[in-house]
Structures are given as structure tokens and as C-alpha cells.
Amino acid sequence: MTRLIFSTFPCLELDTGERWLLADKSIDCDSAAHARMVAYAWIMVVVFCVGVPGGCFLLLWRQRDKIMASEDKRKEDKSLNSIRSLFENYKPEHWYWEPVEMTRRIFMTGFLVVLARGSFAQIVVCQGVSIVALTMLKTRSPFLRGNDNLVAEAMYTQIIITLLLCVLVKSSAEVGDEGELGSGTIDALLVSTQLLFAPLLLYKKLKGDRAQEGGALAAIVPLGGGEGAVSLAEKLTLAEARASEADALRSRLNEAEDELRRLKQE
């Protein structure tokens, strides 16, 4: 939706002085129809691109005291059900993170479309926003689950590396036949970058499935867990085994008592 709204603005100017809409070159940017489209697009910028994150932030801000309560109270508070999806994945003190993330995505996919499309300036601004977002993420770790923070950091890092490679693609001195790096090398690096965090996502999914199927013990012991985690798992297993043995002994004792009563009656 954001890209669709902002695609109304960029126009391609020809040598003849004519300007045509970049997204649809059959539309004259100097026509009255395009002027109406631009006016409507600006309204949608306010309603959607500004209003949605702003409205979500306002809803969260009004309920921030309840959101920052203990986890049990948050779960039991039915008044939060309508906005629960906006904060349930984040730590209570970072209740505002979802609107922040919305704003980042809108900026990256929308506002940058009208900023010197295809230029170094566009890449640099996008790079700067990504670095700031990664820094905020690493200093705050807003997600409840540590794995979610790790995946988000990997995603931001991937974006930053991809943008660095875009600078190389843009630079004909490096990508051209006479450059130090050929286009084939850049293509391979781009593909590799997109696949960097795939194993991390697979690990996260496997760990989640393991925890869901195996219960609390599987959640405690990570895949390839450390010595401390394995030791705790062994202790829990031993405790469960001893409890099972105790139940069996009680059952046998009850059976022996019943047999003794039967013999006395005879």
C-alpha cells in the first residue's frame, strides 16, 4: 500500500520536456488527472502512512500502565485484547516498538521512492536508517524471546550488507569489465547475502517445534545446548523417573494391603 501511494509522485522527464508517470508511462504528469491523483495520494499519506503508526502509538500510550504490568496481569486483562497483537511480542518497557517498526518500514518502502530514485543519495539514506535501526535494536533488545532479537538483528545486517553491495553495483568503476570486481562476483555476493539468515530461521523454527512437542524440558534444552542446560535436563529426567518409581511402589503397597485384608477375612 505504501509503495502504491508513493508511486504517484515520481515522474520521468523526457528531452522534449514532457513528464510521464514512472509507474505508468501512459499518464501525463502535467495533466489534470494526475494532479487529482497527487492530491488524493497526499491525503492517503496522512491517513495511512502517518495515521496508522500514529494511531497505534496513541492506543498503546493510553494503555501503557496496564501493558507494563506483570505478565500474568496483562494476560488476564481483557481490556487489552483489542491491541494485544501490537505489544505481546515485546518486553513491557518497549510497548512502543511496533509503531516504531511500522514507521521504519513505511520510510524504507515509501518515502525513499521519491528521494532521488536510483541515486547514491537514496542508497546512503537507506543505509543510514538501517544502521540506526540496528543500533536501536541491539541496545534495547525489545523482543520478549531472545531468538526474535537475533533474527531481527540478522535481517537488519542483511539489509545493510545488501545496500553496500548496491553501492558496488552502482559504481561502474568496480562492477565494469575493467573493475576489480566483476558483475558475476557481485551477483554471487548478493545471492549469498539473501541466504545468510536462512539457517538462523530454520534453527529458530526447529527449536520452537522441539519446545512445542517436547514440553518444558525441550524448551529448556536448546539444540546443541551447553553443559549447564544438559545437566539440568538430566536432573529433571532423573526426578521424573524417581517420581514414577515412587508411584509404582505406592501402587504395590496398596495392592499388598488389600491382599492382607482379604487373607484376614478368610
Q: Looking at the structure, what is the overall shape?
A: elongated
Beta content comes to under 5%
Kindly report the spatial arrangement of strands forming the biggest sheet: 1-2
Counting DSSP E segments of at least 2 residues, the number of strands comes to 2
How many whole angstroms does the radius of gyration measure? 29 Å
Major beta-sheet overview: 2 strands, antiparallel
SS content category? mainly alpha
Mean pLDDT: 76
Name the helicity range: 55-70%
Instruction: Calculate the terminal CA-CA distance, rounded to whole Å.
Output: 86 Å
Secondary structure tally, helices: 12
Uncertain residue ranges = 209-233
Q: Total domains, how many?
A: 3
* Assembly state: single chain
Protein name: TRP C-terminal domain-containing protein
Keywords: Coiled coil, Membrane, Transmembrane, Transmembrane helix
Organism: Tetraparma gracilis
Coiled coil: 239-266
Write the layout of secondary structure elements.
Layout: H1 2-6, E1 11-13, E2 19-21, H2 32-62, H3 64-67, H4 71-76, H5 97-109, H6 120-140, H7 146-170, H8 172-175, H9 183-194, H10 198-214, H11 216-220, H12 227-265
Antiparallel strand pairs: 1-2
Helix pairs in contact: 2-5, 6-7, 7-9
How is this structure best described in words?
The chain has 266 residues and is mainly α. It folds into 3 domains: 1-110, no CATH class; 115-224; 229-266. It contains 12 helices and 2 strands; from the N terminus they run H-E-E-H-H-H-H-H-H-H-H-H-H-H. It has helices spanning 2-6, 32-62, 64-67, 71-76, 97-109, 120-140, 146-170, 172-175, 183-194, 198-214, 216-220, 227-265, and strands at residues 11-13, 19-21. The chain has a two-stranded antiparallel sheet with strand order 1-2. A hairpin with a 5-residue loop joins strand 1 (11-13) and strand 2 (19-21). The longest helix is centred in the C-terminal third of the chain and has 39 residues, at 227-265. It is elongated, with a radius of gyration of 29 Å. The protein starts with a helix and ends with a helix. Mean pLDDT is 76; it is low at 209-233.
